[in-house]
Amino acid sequence: MRLFHCECCGQRLYFENTHCVHCDTPQGFDPYTLSLRSMTSDAFRPCINRESGICNWLVPAQSDDQYCLSCRMTLVIPDLSVSGNVTLWADMEAEKQRLIYSLFRLHLPLVTRQLDPDNGLGFRFMADAPLGDSERIMTGHLDGVITLNLAEADPVVREATRRQMAEPYRTILGHFRHEVGHYYWQQLISNGDWQEDFRRRFGDERDNYAQALQRHYQQGPRQGWQQHYISAYASSHPWEDWAETWAHYLHMVDTLETAYEYGLTTMPRGSATSSAEVNLHDDPYQKLSFDQLIAQWLPLTTTMNSLNHSMGYDDVYPFNLSTTVIDKLSMVHSVIHQHSNGI
Length: 343
Ligand SMILES: [Zn+2]
Ligand SMILES: [Zn+2]
Ligand SMILES: [Zn+2]
What we know:
This protein is α+β, with helices and mostly antiparallel strands and 343 residues long. It has 3 domains: 4-67, no CATH class; 73-189, no CATH class; 197-343, no CATH class. The chain has 9 helices and 12 strands. The chain has helices at residues 69-72, 85-105, 155-164, 172-189, 195-202, 209-219, 238-261, 290-310, 323-340; strands spanning 4-5, 12-13, 27-30, 35-38, 44-46, 58-60, 74-76, 122-126, 140-142, 145-149, 265-266, 278-279. The protein is globular.
């Protein structure tokens, strides 16, 4: 994620800011230039969800839309009269905005359901029925519509689920990145030029999906999955492997961009050879080759984990990248960049 500056006073600002922390000028995020703007011109007006504290994005003044681009992608919101739901929904929207930022940075095709009812991207945030006897809301993707169970925004529920599923990592942003991976599989891989490459690396997605998931939940992940998959769940079916790998690629480029924005260089002491120095020198979303991304990513993750341990936390990055997984990530990189270069 980029860092931003107040256009009035130069103060450093962040993606989520609604006001300058120095001069108090109202700030809004312009999704068309991917920048935070001081709301002093009449070229923009705020998204209507700013009133409820949900959104700091801007709408061009000449637009007929009341909602910003991100909020227009939300198809279903929870019942806001239920106590606590506004906060949970706000947390969902904040992470979704980070997702949409990354999709724009990667120049991925992004269209609302209003413009393309069949292939557009939309989100539903839904809570389980209170009595618990109806079917639970399942987090997932279907033909461009991503559904998240609202309870995933509750950190207590999310941590309990994480432990129960024996997962090392579970976040709202991770859910979004995973589910949108299914969407882009349909958009960029299925029936296209990449299908053969996909099957060679990830396996044949025509394997019965329902049976594969049932097998995964009943028998656990494949033996030795660590050699071939980014996560245990990725070993359940080629589609899930793709979504997990795709999500991981988004973790990488966005975290690298943040490190780049801060001018971070890693050069561990005690191994002060020139090869140990990693200088984050270019825009990871667009300019770095895949080999450069990996070369910068691995030492950064070690640094991040060590910083976390110093604060008494577990690994922020509980993953190991095998050569097979790196090869799969390189395919995600190629698919995205081939698309964004318009080849
Ligand atoms: Zn300011
Ligand atoms: Zn909005
Ligand atoms: Zn999935």
